[in-house]
Amino acid sequence: MNQEFELIPAIDLKDGKCVRLQEGRLSHATRYSDDPLATALRWQELGAQRLHLIDLDGAFSGSTAHLGLIRSIIRELRIPVQFGGGLRTLDQIGRILDLGAGRAILGTVAVEKPELVAEAVKRYAGAIVVGVDARAGLVAVRGWVDQSIVTATRLALGMKDLGVERLVYTDVSRDGMLTGANVDETEQLARAAGIPVIASGGISGPDDVRALWERRRSGIEGVVLGRALYEGKLDYRDLAARAAAWS
Prior knowledge:
39% helix; alpha/beta; 11 helices; eight-stranded parallel barrel; TIM Barrel; globular
């Protein structure tokens, strides 16, 4: 299994701004920038090799809400972008990939319309990533507002069977909380699924990243970095240097 480990800055879009939520709750949003494009370029300048871009308004509404801004970010960056938020039809998926996104992250449809995921994989193969967003082991959908009865492991295995090659696993209860990554559950999911997993949620500092890096042979291939970056608890260049030294 590929042992490279990616440090992936996140940009979450809401009302055209760059924000972070706590546990996915709109009532707990913190705005960090009025210029998401400038923020994306900053992460690229600091050495990021990939950007994690999420349309929060799209995740809640089911329809991409920032198409012009998303287009600008993808076109201005030299690094690949993985995009998610409101991708619930093949047309929406195709539109984002046509704009130049390297990966399309599917969430709600993976639970509600797995046949659509199967068709997307046939059309776009490795560009399709499934977001496994779980609270207490059960997958949350529709912007994490609704709780399904599907377990994270069951969804992961089902997506692997459909040909999905990569997952992003988020512990919703830790997302934006700076309480530490759920390293054990991320590792368990990666081992069970047998395909690469990108960890997300709860990162509070370098030790969390190191803990995930140490489990990379289980299939954890990277980590999404959000609030800890924006609040200075992580310095991207310093973290990248540390990770290089770990290797």
